[in-house]
Structures are given as C-alpha cells and as structure tokens.
Amino acid sequence: MVFIAILAITPRYSQGIGGLHVFALVWLSLFACLSTTASCDLYLAQSTIPEAGLGVFTGISRNPGDILGAGDVCIPLLDPGTHHDDLFDPFDDFVWMGEDMGMKMEIESQVKAFCPGLDCAINCNLALINVEKHGVDFDDAGLHRSQHPGAGATTPYFNSTTKVKRRLPAGGELFKDYGDSWFTSRQKFDGVPLSDDFAVAQNLVDTAFNLGDANTDRLHLQHLFEDILIPIGEIWNLTTLKALPSSFDEVLIANREDIGMTHQPNATRSLEWLEVNGKCIDNIVPGRSTIDGAGHGAFASRNLPKGTVVTGTPLHHIPFQDEFTPMYRVVTRGQKQYLDRREVAGQQLVLNYCFGHPQTTLLLCPYGFGVNYINHNRSKANVRIRWAQNGITSHDESWLLKSPSEMLAETGAHLALDYIATRDIKRGEELFFDYGEGWEKAWYEHVKDWQSTKFWSSMYRNGRDWDSELQKLPLRTTLEALADPYPQTIQIRCHSILDEDAWTNFTRSVFEYGYPCEILDRVKGEDTDYMYTVKLTTEPHNEYDTEFESSETLVVNNVPRDAIRFVDIPRTSDIHLRDAFRQFIGLPNELMPEAWKNLKGKA
Ligand SMILES: C[S@@+](CC[C@H](N)C(=O)[O-])C[C@H]1O[C@@H](n2cnc3c(N)ncnc32)[C@H](O)[C@@H]1O
C-alpha cells in the first residue's frame, strides 16, 4: 500500500485499432495467457501501477466468488500511535482498522491490524476493483493460558482470505478497494478520480449510447468523445473527466462491458513475465503446527524439490526497535485511563514475527505470504533464508550498506528475503527454519520460568468459548449474576440494531460487537427459547461508529439469545498476559551486514 494506485498516470493501451476489434483483441490477448500453463496460482511482482511497488497477480483466470490465498495471519498492533513515537511508522500504509479484523475488543482505544500476505500487498485501482476482503477466523490453536507457555505468543486472528469480485484473466493484477478517503487523505493523490467519478463517467458513456441507435449515430458519438469530451478532460482538471475512457475504442469497451474493462489490458502481465520476474506465493498453507504449543504452522501446498524458492517476502524496516515495540503501563485515574510512559509493561506481539539481531536496533518484519506461519525447529529445519536477488520483490542491495539511522527517512519495502528448500519437501509436510541460538535460549528460559505460575488461570475461557458453551443455558439476570457472577474477563453485548420488531442476530462472525448490555429479565414461552429484557447502553460517537453522538440507555424487550453474546473485556485476552513470550527471530550472522551493527560491543 506504499504500493499505491495512481490512476491519473496509468498509461492507456495504444489507440487507433478499430473499436470492435480492439474489444476482441483485448480478450484474446488476456485469455491467450490461459494457453500457457501457469506453474503457480499467485505471484508477487512489480505492480502494473507506476511507482506503486509490488502487486499480486493471479496465475489462472478467476471468477467472482473464488477465494484467493491460503489465509494469512493478522497481528493486532495495540494503540500504536500512543505507544510509539509518531515520527516513523513503517506500518502506516500497510494496516487495516483492527475493528474490521475482529480486534475491536482487544483494547478500549485504537487497534490496528497488520495482516501480512494478500492483505498487505494488493494495490488499489478504483477503476478496476476485482477482489475484496473475505474474512478472518479466530482460533487460539488450543493454547490455553494454564497449560501452554506459548499462550499469548501467537496471534489468534488467522486465515485472512480474499474473495474475487469480478472476472480476472490469468496474469491479471488484483485490486482491492481502500476507500476514497485513502486517496483524499494523501496530498500526492490530489486530482486522482474517485469511485463516484468512475460511476458518473460510466453513466455518461451509457447515456450517450442510449441517445440513439449506436450504429447510425456512431460517428456522432465518436466525435462527441474524441473531439469534445476527451480533449476537455485534458484541459480541465476535473476528476470525472479524467475518469472517462481515453479513446473511442475504450468508450466502446466501456459501453459493452464497463469502464473497469478498459483498464484490464494494462493491469495484466504475461505468465512468462511473471515466471521470470515474479515470485510464486502459494506454496504454503497454514494449519495447526505439529509442534505442541507452537500455535499455527506452515505446510507445503505442493511437492517442493530441494533448492525451490518456497516463498519470498518483502520486509518492513523498523530502524529503532525501542521506538516501536514497547507497550507502556496503563494507569486508571477515576473513569479515565492513561499510559505511564515511564514503565514498559510488555512488547507488541508483532515482535515475535520479526527478525532482529543482538548487535542492531533494526527490526525487519516480513509481510510475505505464509512466511509468518513458519515455526522454529533446528533439527527438522527444511528451509533456510537468504537475501532476495537485487531488484526482485523490492530487494535493494544498497540497503545492506545503510545504517539504521539512514533508513529512518524512508518507509516502504527496500529489503526482501527468499525462503529456500534445503531438501526435497513433500506436499503436506510442515516447514521449519532455524530461528537461531538466541531465540531457542529465550524460549527455554521462558518455559522454565513460566511453569511456576500456570495454575492460577485454569478456569479461564475467552468470550467466544463462553458464548458457544453457554449457548443453550439461560442467561443470568443482573440480580442472579450478583450471586453467581460471570468471570471478570467477559462482558455481555447486545446487537446494535435496535429495532425491537427486527432484532438482528449476531452471525457469530468476528466482526460484530454490538453494545454493552445487562440482562434485566427473561421469559420462556411454551414452545420458544428464552426471550430477554435488556438494558443497553449505546456507545458515543467515535471514529468507527457515527450512529450515536452520546451514550444513551435503552430498555428493550423480547430480545432473542442470538442477539446477545459474550465478548472479552478489553486487555484480558491472551496477548495481554504479562508473562506472554516475546522474542524476535534471529537474523543469521551470515546475513547481518556490518553497517547495521549499531549495538556492536554493547550487546
Ligand atoms: C513467526 S511466529 C510463527 C507462527 C506462529 N506459530 C503462529 O501461530 O502464528 C513465531 C512464534 O511462533 C511460536 N513458535 C515458533 N516455533 C516454535 C517452537 N519450536 N516451539 C514453540 N513455539 C514456537 C512462538 O510463539 C514464536 O514467537
């Protein structure tokens, strides 16, 4: 997403071929790619949008509804704007609202979601949105805080997938909608057409064609577009005019299909080009690790002969780790909570997913596909890492000569790693690499220290587990809960659609949160489940929710159980555990450049 859409300067394909032929040629050339067998279903390669960095391409044609990608992790970044100095945020252009990834209840303030893989690498082209976010699952991989030293050390938000919205030819670049505000909030995109501009331009094309018989009036139409509207668009800096097709051939395509299709040729690369210049990114599927307590792991999706580049990953650079990963203590004064910046209470979970080295302050966080699932195992290691080839997947060798301070000025990916199979790997085998001696030592020490405290939390269950376990039991009223309370880590929330005649049930998706509510009463009909009377407190206007200006209390009757759910209280989930394991992955000594060693002699 430093990978950016710069629609205004996207070059158009050449003009001057007869309209209908152009249309046929477009599709012929797009689907000619199909005759070549792709060895890979998804590639990472230079975007077709100029200056937009990397992009993701499909190796096969896709239809609406197809699910792409094996599903990557999503890592919560807790209140990052508060915990770290705002001077440098390497993740800024690469994160989603935590709320959209099911993370809203992690803390009461802002949570952002760092979702490597497709979520990080797909660019936005507002004229040709062809994919959308499909969903994230929640699964703590069976790591219970009373039994596993690994509880809270891995993200439970995983399997983040992407769905196809419109037909894609083999070789087509994927584009997701970042929303108009992503463009309007960045000065460099001033004058870029927004989604409404494309809608109006499409309407203009369709209206012009509807004015008369397209065959008899064709010359008039051609004149209208070529001699009037397109030149006016070049003179006047109107975004709607810029959204119009740039030739009459394209107008014909826009009328026959839609404006998006006029952008498809420029957004498509040949499979031969992708094989040479891209990196295959679908060799990995996630699953529960075969290592007890390690959470999820990465598995080979196909046989991978020794020497195969299993995957490649660009890296976010954090020049000074201490300015990004520490989390400060939260102090409560009256009704308000403050961060005490004098006391570091822990580290952001993302640390466990990044590479570091004791001799440098630099942290490198991979956002490639599936790489964040690969666990440590020295004896069973079947992949190793090496620097990517210069110029491929954003790797710039000159960055191996820069000091961490010199990296401060720039965000975006400038370094990249390849993961190489060190032996033949069979489809379905778990992938491992060596995180290094430092990591292993830290892990064993953590396991040793952790064991003494494991009994205190044996009763803990997260809100989602409570919700499904108590699904069939009547909910306790507030009075009953005084005598028989629910655990202090959970709260009850009711669906936010308040119309009593149309109660909307929670779908159990991770994205719905509702409002805090109390159960005042319940009644059971003869043939019906319990219905509840609830007191619901709407949440005041905040950046996510514009419905209520201030908090209101409402009593609602006849609320079904499916419109009520248990949710974690903020800051109580496993990732907030004080003794959760935090340790970066060791960058091997042989990959560690001298220029980065700003802690040499101090460590
Ligand atoms: C890059 S993540 C690997 C993916 C992770 N297992 C997950 O579920 O998201 C690194 C973290 O995985 C866990 N891990 C990796 N290898 C492990 C091992 N051999 N034993 C225990 N935990 C391991 C640790 O919590 C580590 O900090």
From TrEMBL:
It comes from the Eukaryota. InterPro entries: SET_dom (IPR001214), SET_dom_sf (IPR046341). Pfam families: SET. Gene3D superfamilies: SET domain (2.170.270.10). Residues 282-436 form the SET domain. This is SET domain-containing protein.
